[in-house]
Design brief:
Blueprint: H1 14-25, H2 27-34, H3 36-51, E1 56-60, H4 62-79, E2 86-90, H5 95-98, H6 108-117, E3 125-130, H7 136-147, E4 152-156, E5 166-169, H8 184-203, H9 220-234, H10 238-247, H11 252-261, H12 264-273, H13 278-283
Parallel strand pairs: 1-2, 1-3, 3-4, 4-5
Helix pairs in contact: 2-8, 3-8, 4-8, 6-7, 9-10, 9-11, 10-11, 11-12
């Protein structure tokens, strides 16, 4: 549909164009808020599957697929989640990450082929993303997922006939530039993806208080941040916290438990018994 507010968009001043885009963007968070009950269902589904060793598999085309890829790429450094447990099935393949691949979203059989190739199984969760709610690639992917007993989520910005165990619909309405779903629809999908992955990490115990205690330690910035987190939780100074972090091979949770118990083996055992949750591990001391 065309947005009546943006008729004669090309005749507006630059500031008028920007103001209109901004006004339309402000409607998105309120629409996402209305979908919180469904997003919560999605979080519980993801956390439950993840605890049993499952993977998160995003299926999408175009902007939707690229947004999912960005969110998935942030989870290993932020929450220490193994990249192998985050899979992106994209219409058009890797080439489509960087440039549009025409008609790729219409080939449902390609989605099935890619899902078969990754050995999709019932412990995985498939998240289908489609602004229109009609993308054949996503439709076929979710349909195939159900045949293998795989839980499914759908994130769409239109009412959709695509079946899924949890349907998160954020009806963002017509874009300022007709059909340019990288705008409001893209923003809505990005918000939902971030909410899903963040709340899932919280439910899995990868966050203590509001601190990312399972963050990766691949670079100097992360090591420095990890040290500050250990200082904050343990109350120890930077030197002692850094020493504990080194002994724990960069794992903030193990470092905190080491400072509490004085025993590295016990610290690791406590964390394993608590399934990675620092709060649960601390409660056992």
């Amino acid at each position: 549909m065309r947005n009546p507010k943006s008729f004669e968009l090309d005749l507006m001043s630059t500031e008028q164009v920007l103001s209109l885009i901004n006004e339309e963007d402000q409607t998105v968070p309120l629409l996402v808020r209305q979908a919180i009950p469904e997003i919560a269902q999605g979080v519980e589904l993801l956390a439950s599957s993840f605890k049993t060793g499952g993977r998160i598999v995003h299926v999408g085309a175009g902007t939707s697929a690229r947004l999912a890829l960005v969110d998935a790429a942030e989870l290993p450094p932020t929450y220490g989640i193994s990249p192998e447990r985050l899979v992106n099935v994209i219409a058009g393949g890797r080439e489509a990450v960087f440039q549009a691949v025409e008609h790729a979203e219409d080939r449902g059989s390609e989605a099935v082929r890619q899902l078969t190739q990754i050995s999709l199984c019932h412990s995985d969760v498939v998240i289908g993303l489609t602004a229109s709610g009609t993308t054949p690639f996503v439709f076929a992917g979710l349909d195939y997922a159900r045949t293998v007993g795989c839980p499914t989520l759908l994130i769409a910005c239109n009412p959709s006939l695509i079946e899924a165990d949890v349907k998160i619909i954020v009806p963002t309405g017509p874009e300022v530039v007709t059909g340019s779903t990288r705008m409001k629809a893209g923003m809505a999908q990005r918000m939902v993806l971030t909410m899903l992955s963040t709340a899932m990490a919280v439910r899995l115990g990868l966050v203590y208080d509001n601190l990312m205690v399972a963050l990766g330690s691949q670079n100097a910035k992360c090591l420095e941040r990890g040290c500050r987190i250990v200082c904050t939780i343990s109350g120890e100074n930077e030197e002692i916290s850094k020493e504990a972090l080194r002994a724990a091979d960069g794992d903030v949770r193990v470092a905190v438990l080491l400072l509490r118990t004085g025993d590295l083996s016990k610290a690791r055992a406590l964390l394993e018994e608590a399934e990675g949750s620092l709060r649960k591990a601390l409660e056992r001391i």
